[in-house]
Amino acid sequence: MLTIDNLHATAGDKEILKGISLTVNAGEVHAIMGPNGSGKSTLAQIIAGHPGYTVTSGSVTYEGRDLLALQAEERAQAGVFLAFQYPIEIPGVTNAYFFRTAYNEVRKANGKEELDPIEFLDLMETKLKLVEMDPAMLHRSVNAGFSGGEKKRNEILQMAVLEPKLAILDETDSGLDIDALRVVAGGVNALRRPDNAAIVVTHYQRLLNYIVPDFVHVLANGRIVKSGGKELALELEARGYDWVLEAA
Amino acid sequence: MSSSIESLVNKEYQYGFVTDVESDTIAPGLTEDTVRLISSKKNEPEWLLEWRLKAFRRWQAMTEPHWSNLKYDPIDYQSQRYYSAPKSVTPLQSLDDVDPELLKTYDKLGISLSEQKFLAGVAVDAIFDSVSVGTTMKTELAAHGVIFCSFSEAVHNHPELIKKYLGSVVPYSDNFFAALNSAVFSDGSFCYVPKGVRCPIELSTYFRINAANTGQFERTLIVADEGAYVSYLEGCTAPKRDTHQLHAAVVELVALDNATVKYSTVQNWYAGDKEGKGGIYNFVTKRGKAHTNSKISWTQVETGSAITWKYPSVILQGDNSTGEFYSVAVVNNMQQADTGTKMIHIGKNSKSTIISKGISAGKGQNSYRGQVKMLPKAAGSRNYTQCDSMLIGNQCGAHTFPYIEVANNTSTTEHEASTSKIGEDQIFYCKQRGMNAEHAISLIVSGFCREVFKELPMEFALEAQQLLGITLEGSVG
């Protein structure tokens, strides 16, 4: 589904990614861990098409297409979804309208019929239950005045609505209490299917108790320095990152 | 990001065409004779000519105000033409007699004057240069006792109402542009809603400037008698021309005891080109007087004009009266707007709300100027002001000039202001959810304007949507 080959990228003058290679197949969940400043969020943002970074070499292929040649919205329409580490506020625009616009834009790009507001509300009803959110939040402005936990749930709700093929969760667990974490992880698990995949970026092993990954990668200083199965996360939790970095 | 913003804000002006009609246009220049000529062309009674002449003499003694935050070349009042009317329009004609060329013009503007295609639930008075082309649905309104017609017609048919209310809210001596308008105003709309009547449909005036080098000076007077209600809409467009054209209007609203007047404007005069060539100079005086328990509400969406100088205001004369001002002002390219409101609290427990949203793009300069004044007798009065600015790009400007005076110790005023920039992060967030940049900006801007758009009647909300390229569905309701 996704093949990243020797990816180098800069932000301004600073090289942040220094040769990342990663293959994600349908049905897999990959966890990306690593210390602060290792380039985890940058990798997530570059896959999603954030304009703040420059890819200097390497390639990203998604379902046979050159992902880097696509606009951010084209990537979204092709099924790439990023759950933001810091979800953005859009005052005055209701969640319901924002979600429906996003949903219909993706549908339209894929030659499917758009849903009208009534049909869409029906769809939302089931999705809201998945993340245990109050329907009243549909009428609030996008993320404006939301608590940290609400914002993160709102990201997962969007993911549930858009049903992406490739979901990237950028530190979705940070700032969540244990109940919210359970809800968010439950939502993600419910959406796992043999034909989609997820990349979970996290600092902590804690989230991986709930979202069990097939592979764990350690990112340090812009490179993947170690990959393994789910047990690697437990080892990192117990021993910290230093031993991996030294071995690298 | 910048290229998508540019393409959005640089959309072609759709209403820039010129209608080819034979016009009766007077020579440029402004003297007492010009005033007499206009009055005689309109076959006016002596008392109105006298009023015009008093205004003209007063105007001659005044100087153009320059306290606004607007920069423009001096206006040569002697090079303007003060009257132009299509020859095919005869006074007091019926709609059946309207020149097909003029009907086509309004069709192109999306305003149908022909009987079969009236906008549902809206009566329209169509003003073309200096005259009214026709007013729709007059008979239907008359059944409710509502008078809605051109100003010229009202002068002849309802002189007692005109004499009573003309200049009662904006005296001819009020300011330079109001004095000029009082001297040379040519047409406009008049509306009277009798006691206790709720006007069953929206009333609307559509102003069109067509003739070159001609100013438009219209005058609108709306009177809601005790307990009456009326909602009124105003739209305006003009052809693209290389020279600046002057538009100096006066609007007077009167809400008698327990009455409500709601006045909405979508101003889309030609704004000039990217270099600031051409465009309308819009110097407008709009004011309402609210009597006991009455309410006057202004909503404006200002997108056009090279220069906008406009402060729709409310004199809260009566106890428990309410004044509202909801405004979206957009400037782009070289446009400049200095707009806001005045809320003058005289009555006890009077209440005013000001919500102003300024959007600046290109090299546009947007100023909010608002006065809130609580007089000694206005005990227990309240004002809430919220004034938000949004910047698109980094060559534009937003300015805020609030003036607050409270002369009693039981009134309260609140003023909140904010400035934000459309962020790359907001646009990226929308793009990551599948929307293109243009759609993203529309969405963000419409959210920003939501509090104002929800005050617009539905018909106009749609027009505002087209104007700003904004999808309103999410921001209304």
Give a written overview of the molecule.
Chain A is an alpha/beta fold and 248 residues long. Helices cover 38% and strands 28% of the residues of chain A. A six-stranded mixed beta sheet of chain A has the order 6-9-10-3-11-12, with helices on both faces. In chain A, strands 2-1-4-5 form a four-stranded antiparallel beta sheet, with helices on one face. A two-stranded antiparallel sheet of chain A has the order 7-8. In chain A, helix 5 packs parallel to helix 6. Chain B has 477 residues and is an alpha/beta fold. Chain B has one domain. In chain B, strands 5, 6, 8, 10, 11, 13, 15, 16, 18, 20 and 22 form an eleven-stranded mixed beta sheet that branches. A ten-stranded mixed beta sheet of chain B has the order 4-3-7-9-12-14-17-19-21-23. A two-stranded antiparallel sheet of chain B has the order 1-2. In chain B, a hairpin with a 2-residue loop joins strand 3 and strand 4. In chain B, helix 9 packs across helix 10. The longest helix of chain B is centred in the N-terminal third of the chain and has 15 residues. The N terminus and C terminus of chain B are likely disordered. Chains A and B meet through helix 2, strand 7, helix 3 and strand 8 of A and helix 9 and helix 10 of B.
What is the average per-residue confidence, as pLDDT of chain A, rounded to a whole number? 92
For this structure, what is the CATH class of chain A?
Alpha Beta
The main β sheet of chain A shows up as: 6 strands, mixed
Cα distance, first to last residue of chain A?
Answer: 28 Å
Oligomer: heterodimer
Helix proportion range of chain A: 25-40%
The CATH topology of chain A is given as Rossmann fold
Most extensive protein-chain contact, per-chain counts: A-B, 33 and 28 residues
CATH-defined architecture of chain A: 3-Layer(aba) Sandwich
Order of helices and strands of chain A: EEEHEEHEEHHEHEHEHEEHH
Which regions of chain A are unreliable across 5 or more consecutive residues at pLDDT < 50?
none
Q: Helix content range of the residues of chain B, please?
A: 10-25%
